[in-house]
Structure formats: structure tokens, C-alpha cells
Amino acid sequence: MTSMQIEVVQSLWKSVLPLRDDVAHLFYRRLFEIEPELSVLFKGDMQDSVKKIILTLDLAILNLGQLEKVMPVLQEMSNRYVQCGMKVDSNVVRNTLLATLEQCLGEAFTVSLRNDWIQSYDLLLGVMKDAVTEKVTYGFTD
User: Sign of the CA dihedral 53, 56, 62, 68?
Assistant: First the structure.
């Protein structure tokens, strides 16, 4: 990703932050409609899971240009997914995130912004996939 693309994604994310709880709930509602079996993996208080995901996403996006700072967090998340047996189609997650951002941002979510977000998502997913130990099948499918 170019520094300009990173800047654009980070700027958009900062504009989403005040709405982050609504965005997260909308994202999960959409995801569970598409992949209902995933909802059973979120035991306990869903609000706690939402907060953790948003904090991790916030940290990852705000450090896109310095991924070494967030690699341990992404690696830990990735390995947790594997340990709990979570299998998620990465395309479904990406498309759900994009649809959620588009719904929340409307016309401000341009084709160019969408493409920048796809690159960001793919970059972060690559870091997570690389983090998984050799003997474990990764929790995301392509």
C-alpha cells in the first residue's frame, strides 16, 4: 500500500470511530445473517467481543504503515481463532465489512476508498495468516 492509501484509510476510520459501536453491531448482524453458525462462537457478552474487535481494528488501521507494532496483537488474535476452531471465509468477512462501511458512509464511500480498504484488509489478513503456527490449519479460508 502507498502512504497515500494508508492515509486515506486511516482518515476514513477516524471518521467512523464515533459510530464504532453501531458499525460493529451492524457488521456482526450482517455476518451472522450470512454465516449463522459463527454466532455460537461468540459466547457470553457480545458487547465485550465487539469492543475487543473494534480496539484491535483501531490499532491495526492506525498502524498500517508500521505493522511491526501490531503484529503481536494480530498474531494472538489469529492463533485464538485457530485454537477455538473458528473457520471463516475471509471473503465473506471482507465483503461484510465493506457493505457495512458503505451503508454507514453512503456516497462518501467511493470506489477508490473501497479499493483502499480491500488492500488494507488483505494486508492485515496476510499478517494474520503468516502468524499461525506451521502445524495448525488457519482459521480463515480463501
Answer: negative
